[in-house]
Amino acid sequence: MSQTILIVDDEREVVDLLKLYIENEGYNVLEAFDGQEALELVRKRDIHLIVLDIMMPACDGLQVVKELRQALSVPVIFLSARVQDHDKILGLNLGADDYMTKPFNPLEVVARIQAQLRRYQYMHAESAAVSEVVEIGGLLLDKAGCQLHKNGQLVPLTSIEYKLLLHFMENPGRVFTKRQLLDSVWQQWFGDDNTLLVYISKLRDKIEDEPRKPVYLTTIRGLGYRFEKRC
């Protein structure tokens, strides 16, 4: 069965252009022209990835991601005219998996969609093959359900956060350089090192009691990062 991509943008020309290229790759495409319409579609339809504008009427893209991440881990790619670094960091911090700026090359959008879908499929296929959990300290990562529990409480994760945390927790005590993490977790990388820093910060916010004084995910100055072994 073909996968379904939801395009959300209040510019019909953008939606029509993306739809043409995405359908040409064999995907089903759904359209929404504001955030509220997008959320209604997500509740009713089985959607595999969302390409999402930020500045829209009714409910903007940032609010859409906030609501989505309360229950779903489906990949989200922001496609926005906001080009400043702080806009990108905000979008990623809210739970987006990728961020592209307008004007854009539709072929690159398709490539990023395919990369995100491969990553998401790999993550779920890998977790379906094993039913074990990884537990360190108060953190329990359920590989079958792709879920994190901290001190017994469910902590929502995006697909990239899950893969990054799994990589760390399966290799406690090992130091990873930034490049090793990008190669292992992202595999096909379009961004820069700053995006990795964003995800490290997001993970710390979710797993640490005091993110500014991490006890799990520590920085090894001049080398990279290490997930500490804890009882």
TrEMBL record:
GO molecular function: any one? phosphorelay response regulator activity
Tell me which InterPro entries the record gives.
CheY-like_superfamily (IPR011006), OmpR/PhoB-type_DNA-bd (IPR001867), Sig_transdc_resp-reg_C-effctor (IPR016032), Sig_transdc_resp-reg_receiver (IPR001789), WalR-like (IPR039420), WH-like_DNA-bd_sf (IPR036388)
- Which biological process, per GO, is one annotated for this protein? regulation of DNA-templated transcription
UniProt modified residues of type 4-aspartylphosphate: 53
Record-annotated DNA-binding residue ranges = 131-229
What does the UniProt entry say about where the protein is found?
Answer: Cytoplasm
Q: Which PROSITE patterns match?
A: OMPR_PHOB (PS51755), RESPONSE_REGULATORY (PS50110)
Q: Which UniProt keywords apply?
A: DNA-binding, Phosphoprotein, Transcription, Transcription regulation, Two-component regulatory system
Q: Can you give the residue ranges of the OmpR/PhoB-type domain?
A: 131-229
Q: Which domain of life is it from?
A: Bacteria
Q: GO CC terms for this protein?
A: cytosol; protein-DNA complex
**Domain Response regulatory: from-to ranges:** 4-117
Q: What is this protein called?
A: DNA-binding response regulator, OmpR family, contains REC and winged-helix (WHTH) domain
Species of origin reads: Paenibacillus jilunlii
User: What phylogenetic lineage does the species belong to?
Assistant: Bacteria, Bacillati, Bacillota, Bacilli, Bacillales
